[in-house]
Amino acid sequence: MRVLLASPHRYPVSGQNGSGLHPREYPSGSGYHLHDLIAQGLAEEGHEVFYYIQKGTEIPLPSGVLQVETPVPNVDVCHAPIGPPRFAETILEFADAQRIPCLLTCHMREADEPAKPNWVFVSHSLARAHGSGRVVLNGVNPHDLIFSETKDDYLLFMGAMNRASDKGLDLALALARRAGSRLIVAGTGLNYETIHHISELCTAAGAEYLGDVRGKQKAELIAGARALLFPSRLHEGCPLIVLEAMLSGTPVISSRMGGTVEIVTPETGILCDAEGEWETALHRIGRVSPLRCREIALEKYHYRRMVKDYLQEYKREIECFDS
Hints:
Layout: E1 2-7, H1 30-44, E2 48-53, E3 65-68, E4 77-81, H2 87-98, E5 102-106, E6 119-121, H3 124-129, E7 155-158, H4 164-167, H5 169-179, E8 183-186, H6 192-205, E9 208-211, H7 215-224, E10 227-230, H8 240-247, E11 252-255, H9 260-263, E12 269-272, H10 275-284, H11 290-300, H12 303-322
Helix pairs in contact: 1-12, 8-11
């Protein structure tokens, strides 16, 4: 199959070097990272991949992925994430003009907007919220992470700090303080004002704020944590940090919200609602097997599985387009 992938970021969005206490254009960029993984996986599956990266590349693309300066015709299907205003619309206009089927991935709830027929969602709960049944769960690359059955005595909170309140940072800080547990906070924001604010919150609560971490530092941090705290207030799609924690053998203590409910099971972590449940979860999280967390993640949340599921959606979109 000949596939045109399109994304507004600069490749790779993740990178190997964190910015520490400095801002980034995409504090999370998880949706764009997934597009990078899709490009890699499609090429590994033997497909022709043309990647339109709007802001160019810092390093060479994976073997078998051809960078293009503008969207190219003569492909079987094109695929883009729903991202910043007008980008997806521009790709749709190109696809319509060239008579090419086009798929869009929705990673988070788009207000109360009903799904378009060509939208695919990253969790069943997100799809249901938009009145759709098209779902491809996210996947991660095991080679980006480290598995460890041995854990250090710290909890980890990691996320985009421009949405710290929505992600439940205040809840994580309060929980760790009440429990007398060491908490490490990682993630950056869009500007220094946000970073300084988060630093002050962490200092006041006795937590350690590292800022942006990437590559080996991030992998080691996740692998060593006793648990990942994910007390998000958002209708999450399929959070990558939860999948990365599981693949690292690190159990997850999460709020019972959105797509996280589909991922965090008694074998991989604990879901919480009421305040008292969080303290109970801290005492019980040691019962979760790191090895089982990894086994489940490898089976259900590997990027190669994600790519195969997208290939089925590509075929479905082509069939609908031709009918």
